[in-house]
Amino acid sequence: MALDLWIALAALTVPGTTPEVEVIDHVIRRGEENLHLQKELRKEVAALGELRDRFAKGESSKEHVWNMVKTAKKVLDLIEQEHLAHLFSDEYLEELKFFSSFVEKQTITRD
Predict the structure, then answer these.
(1) How confident is the model at residue 103, as a pLDDT?
(2) Closest by alpha carbon to 81, among 41, 21, 29, 24?
């Protein structure tokens, strides 16, 4: 929330700035937005890893599986949104697509 406020404030044009400064300001804002999304992606990838580990150890409740599927969908969406697929293995991306397909089909229901 604070980042959004900062970005909104930074978007205001400062009197006396040049077009070049405004361009650099835009680049900086976009870079900060990218960093925010990349940190969100990192958090979700780590969460998915933990969910997968727990699943491999026998946690297979509907709620756990649903959380794993939703997290995989979120990770895939972020990767696609930020055009980062080239950074991940084909195997990992296929796994994300497989789990994401359950969200799209809504074949798993929550209790």
Answers:
(1) 85
(2) 41
Of the candidates 3, 93, 91, the one whose C-alpha atom is nearest the C-alpha of residue 39 is 3
Closest Cα partner for 14 from 22, 5, 6?
Answer: 22
- CB 99 within 8 Å of CB 72: yes
Across residues 9-14, what is the average pLDDT? Answer: 59
Q: Tokens 């990992």 label which residue?
A: 92
Residue ranges per structural domain of the chain: 19-105
pLDDT at residue 2 in the model: 60
pLDDT for 15: 66
Task: Give exposure, 54-72, as e/b (b: 16+ Cβ within 10 Å).
Answer: eeeeeeeeeeebbbbbbbb
Cβ(82)–Cβ(34) below 8 Å: yes
| pLDDT-based confidence at residue 4 (cuts at 50, 70, 90) | low
